[in-house]
Amino acid sequence: MHNEPLAYRMRPRNIDEVAGQQEIIGEKTALYRMIKNGHVPSMLLYGEPGIGKTSLAYAIAGTSNLPFIALNATVSGKKDVEQVVAESRITGKVLLFLDEIHRFNKLQQDTLLPHVESGAIVLIGATTENPYHDVNPAIRSRCGEIRQLTRLEPEDLLGVLQRAVKDEERGLGKMTIAITDEQLMRIAEGVNGDARKALTVLESVISASDETDGTTIVEDWLIDNLLGRIGLFGDKKGSHFYNLLSALQKSVRGSDVNAGIYYLAHLLEIGDLVAVSRRLLVMAYEDIGLASPEVGPHVLAATEAAVRLGMPEARIPLANAVIEMCLASKSNSAYQAFDAAAKAIHEGKTGDIPLHLRDAHYAGAVDLGHVGYQYPHDTPIGSFGGWVDQQYLPDKISGTEFYKPVIAGEEKKLAAIYERLKEFRKK
């Protein structure tokens, strides 16, 4: 009887047993050839839980035959690193796998630097967070490879599960198990690309199945029941959460209703309702803007309702908001105009406020020359309201245009008025 979990036992022993990740460690990659030829570069492996960061590190260790030490930064500290350094002085080059490397503070990471640089330690750091945000630049610069791993495809996971069922040494091969490839594929498709979860579900299914005449018989309902307990990956403070927010905004900006609803559902299953509502409100003004000005108030009402309702009812007004934004006419002209004006200010393109626009509500304003302002409301112009042709920008930037209309939705009307007023000024 094995004491270790099946997922632990079935870790690949060398890089030829790694499932998926062919673009990183496949036979035709430079990294595969380097390791096969005996050279292991220091590297950072980035990706979500269960997609093979730890397994890849163990596989590289198994192929390289270097002395291998594994640490987890959540429970290890400077003393543990010093012990690894001491080990390298005795055995020569050491391969150090440091899981959750982003948990090390700057001092702890700096302890590694001279030894990674000298080659005494080959570092494989693994992190679920973006290494460009959470790993010190000094460590990053000493890692020849920074690779983002991706979720495994169901076909890759099916191969992992089939090996686990047949493997007599590490897997379940000594048992007689009645399980079909279709049932294994159901597990593979239900764990969202997570090999660890796939093997854990398989082990749980086998443990919960009845045995008849020495054969363990797996039933579909057991698989469905256990898959229903599998949680979505997510951390509302982690990179994946912000990646989901980004994907939601870009899907809405691209008018893809189905993608927008999908990412909203994923976020609400794992995330922070307030953060999601805030992002939706930003999107209403950033991406929809003047083309559909009614959308902003609609989304504000929807997000306020969602926060007041809480989950699960909050999904209803937010789904309405996402679909409306996806299908609304879109414009980013307003905030682009603001950014252009701010850029001009930072570049020193400023000037004195025209005298006739300065505050004149005090004694002595006339003596300072704060006169000449014409009140637009006194001069109606058609159905537009009041308008007077007078200068508002400082002399140095007079005539500069920051606003560039987008000819979409309701903004077409605003653009027409804008162009008409420019014609009046020319006259």
Automatic annotation (TrEMBL):
Xref: InterPro entries: AAA+_ATPase (IPR003593), AAA_assoc_2 (IPR032423), AAA_ATPase_RarA/MGS1/WRNIP1 (IPR051314), ATPase_AAA_core (IPR003959), DNA_pol3_clamp-load_cplx_C (IPR008921), MgsA_C (IPR021886), P-loop_NTPase (IPR027417)
UniProt keywords, alphabetically: ATP-binding, Nucleotide-binding
One Pfam family, short name: AAA_assoc_2
SMART domains found in the cross-reference section: AAA
Domain AAA+ ATPase: 39-154
Family named by the database record: Belongs to the AAA ATPase family. RarA/MGS1/WRNIP1 subfamily.
PANTHER family from the UniProt entry: ATPASE WRNIP1 (PTHR13779:SF7), WERNER HELICASE-INTERACTING PROTEIN 1 FAMILY MEMBER (PTHR13779)
Name of protein: Replication-associated recombination protein A
